[in-house]
């Protein structure tokens, strides 16, 4: 796939759904569920239905293959060879194909592998094997394809508990996106969250991760920056505005918040966009009071010029297997892109050194070992600032 087309497709959303009034959806869905539960249905044999719909035989056959190291390794290698053959034009891929083909030939000598391959060849589905046209829809994995979370992450226990109203039985799944540094027109997935409809836009803003919120706090003396405080985790933003259906919801922290500044900016630039400020702040606006669209991006601005796009993936009723507490839940969080040390180029940097003439750049990113080996600056008159970079942890 052409790289430019690939980036464009990754930054496109939609088609968007019709507008969903969250409160109306909650009331109608609750009424339907009550009517279904109250209406007596025909007596059926639950055991016979379970037996008819069971896929235990398919599951057992699949598990027998995957639990066999020889067969599972053969399937992995066969898939790699098929994908490499689709993209096979470079010498590196050609060498990979030769090595994989050689290993596959040795595996084919085994009776188990030959039997498995014969079963796969007997599958009548024409779409089972990768066709040459599949090269248009395959790509190597990106950073956003990996999830740093090994389990669903719940929110802090001190977060305000939502009301136990009818809207608390509706769950809304959000995905947040941010603009990449090297091209402002390209978006990348950042995180995914599940919220109750009784929670607010402010709760969504507080739970979404962003590297802009991890910037260290400046230490000022006589109006001049002399050092920085090391951050122990994410802290709240100094301001924010979310635009939903041409309505700007500010944080309400000041008399003139980000929503007012956005409207002033649109007037100064004589923009044709018609956006009005909401009467309530984002922390006083429950999701149940909004009319939302699935697959439509909503714009968010905070920390001066840090932009995000929030996309609703689904609006549904809470299931009995869904967690009872801990909302908003975090289902996905993209790995942070770490900069490597500019001295050794092998270890992620932990310090940003500003104003040191011994270094080739200012600021210069260094790992802890390289910075300690350099020692303190020899010229005491130099004003050198050492800024700790944010620390990330895997959940």
Describe the structure.
With 395 residues, the protein is α+β, with helices and mostly antiparallel strands. It folds into three domains: 132 residues, no CATH class; 186 residues, Roll (Structural Genomics Hypothetical 15.5 Kd Protein In mrcA-pckA Intergenic Region, Chain A); 58 residues, no CATH class. It is built from ten helices and 15 strands. The strands form four sheets. Strands 8-7-6-10-11-2-3-12 form an eight-stranded mixed sheet, with helices on both faces. Strands 14-13-15 form a three-stranded antiparallel sheet. Strand 2 and strand 3 form a beta hairpin. Helix 5 runs antiparallel to helix 6. The protein is globular and about 80 Å long. The chain starts with a helix and ends in a 7-residue tail after the last strand. About 2% of the residues have low confidence.
CATH fold topology of the largest domain: Structural Genomics Hypothetical 15.5 Kd Protein In mrcA-pckA Intergenic Region, Chain A
- The termini sit apart by 34 Å
Largest sheet: 8 strands, mixed
* CATH architecture annotation name of the largest domain: Roll
- Strand adjacency order, main sheet: 8-7-6-10-11-2-3-12
Number of strands: 15
Helical content class? 25-40%
CATH class of the largest domain: Alpha Beta
Low-confidence stretches: 89-94
* Average pLDDT number: 81
**Whole-number count of domains:** 3
Q: What is the approximate shape? A: globular
Tell me the strand percentage band: 15-25%
Helix and strand pattern: HEHHHHHHEEHEEEEHEEEEEEEHE
How many H/I helical runs? 10
What integer value in Å does the Rg equal? 27 Å
Strand pairing plus helix content: what structural class? alpha+beta
